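Summary for the steering committee. The consortium agreed at its last meeting that each partner would contribute one worked example illustrating the joint modelling workflow. Our contribution is presented below. We chose a case with several input lines so that the handling of multiple components could be demonstrated. No manual editing was applied between input and output; the record is shown as generated.
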Amino acid sequence: MAEPMKLSIGPLLYLWDRDAVFEFYERLCQAPVEIVYLGEVVCAKRRNVALSDWLDIGDQLAAAGKAVVLSTLALSEAESELGAMRRIAENGRFAVEANDMGAVNMLSGNVPFVVGPHVNVYNAETLKHLAEAGATRFVLPVELGAEVLTDLQRQRPAGMETEVFGFGRLPLAFSARCFTARAHNVAKDSCDFVCANYPAGLLLHTREREPFLVINGVQIQSARTHSLLGQVGALRALNVDVLRLSPQQEGMVKIIAAFRDVLDGGLSSRQAAGELTRYAEHGICDGYWHQRPGMDRSVGA
Amino acid sequence: MNKTRRHVELVCPAGSLPSLKAAVDNGANAVYMGFRDGTNARNFPGLNFDGAEAGKAIAYAQERGVRVLLAINTYPSPAQWTKWCTAVDQAAELNVDAVILADAGLMRYAARTHPQLKLHLSVQGSATNHEAISFYTEHFDIKRVVLPRVLSLSQVRNIIDKVDTEVEVFGFGSLCVMVEGRCVLSSYVTGDSPNTCGVCSPAKAVRWEESASGRKSRLNGVLIDVYAPQEPAGYPTLCKGRFDVDGNVYYALEEPTSLNVLDILPELLNAGVAAIKVEGRQRSPAYVAHVTRVMRSALDACERDPQHFEPKPEWLAQLDKVAEGRCHTLGAYHRPWQ
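What follows is the complete predicted structure of the assembly.
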């Protein structure tokens, strides 16, 4: 008998002020989720919450019964960033999510690790190789859908858990350039943390005023909120182990509750979906799941 | 690894047999090419080689002392797996000098099935630091890594000092502003991405529209840009459109511009890069001939006398003529750009 599907909270992708971060995780201690990912994935310059703080937050969450995982930076270039990555890899307290092959290399053969959504796992051979290196869970790349997942699940190595990005603005791209600094006409080196002004990211419209993308420092996200709430049955049938919800400022407690209710069978996904639309300001999408453009929305979403 | 500087390889694009000949005849040391299907990252209509054509092309290059690198640098899904492996087998049979791969699973297959076949890590492999590169050298014994276009010159230098493999960098051509191999903007809008389909902002999703406000370019319905009358219109690569952020309309992600490293060529050579790559398998044979000739002259001049090397204005002018947006940038090599 398969274990029931768990809920995870992905790493916080925005720069929030320190108090807001601590408050957010304090509330999560009481939330009905099993796994919480912590740490800075987007920009190495953001340091208002230090690794020692993340470890403290992790201790609190662990005491509340959550499984804590520390996430590494997605795009690491500088030697200092590798140093920070190594401190996470060797933290000795919590599991680690590797978000590039550099982190995989540090963790490989040492401790079990999670392969994050920014490491390219597109087929079973890659998954098998990472399993041999010590991976015990992988997050499906966001652009892959039900078809590939079905094949991957059939061939996944023993002991490998599968996690799917289930709710949130999609992380679509990373760059060395900071697009928030660019929008403010300042150099990245003297950005003065302008991204802190945008706790939900900076919206980019087309010239027809259609919300299109969200600028989050060096990261680009979708403006629409990806939601697999309508696919919980399908995810369960595919033996997906973990469904990831990506942190956002608005309505996180309600979002978690909606997913929890659907997972526990207390609420139909249609009822819950209505509840969620108010926390997806620029609309819902689920195209990737259906092998369609990621921005598309299916009837059931 | 011995970091003494040797001859730097000029690696040029071969999207077709005429382009390959143009590269070989104008001074390339190596060409890179792909099969005519989704196994490579320039899966465009009318480009690339089937098996028989590939044999002919490879012979043309190798007989003239030019090495042939074959790109199989998209990420196969389980359903596509066998086809991608067959492409690796074919490359080995064709005696190419190396294959350029991105997917770790495919590298594993290649390393185990064809131990004599040299492996290069594609830019699509997205290795941006020496730890990531070490993963591929230790696990698959790669001989060369192509660096993503997100690194500064000092970061490139640091990587070369630390890794046991040759380092290839981009020298000229259209510029990705995002880290390659980890950008899914194209599939978000069109369903097809470089990783899954070998395309970015594919032509089949492009629509041009004449309107009172100007000429509009759309990608699967999403407005990428509007051009005033007389304003030259560029291909609607979605990160190179003009968008509205807080009421300002500008190139919010990147201008249409080309990368050009001539200004820092001595520094790159001195850092110990093994190869310099020209982008553009989708471009014409005339482009390949033109860019190869200029890059050859520049590299020769720089290797002869790196101390006094300065890019000639006519080289820059010639390259700008064929550059995207008709202008150039040092990209991430130059810190302020970031």
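The first helix of chain A runs from residue 18 to 28. Chain A touches chain B through 74 residues (CB under 8 Å).
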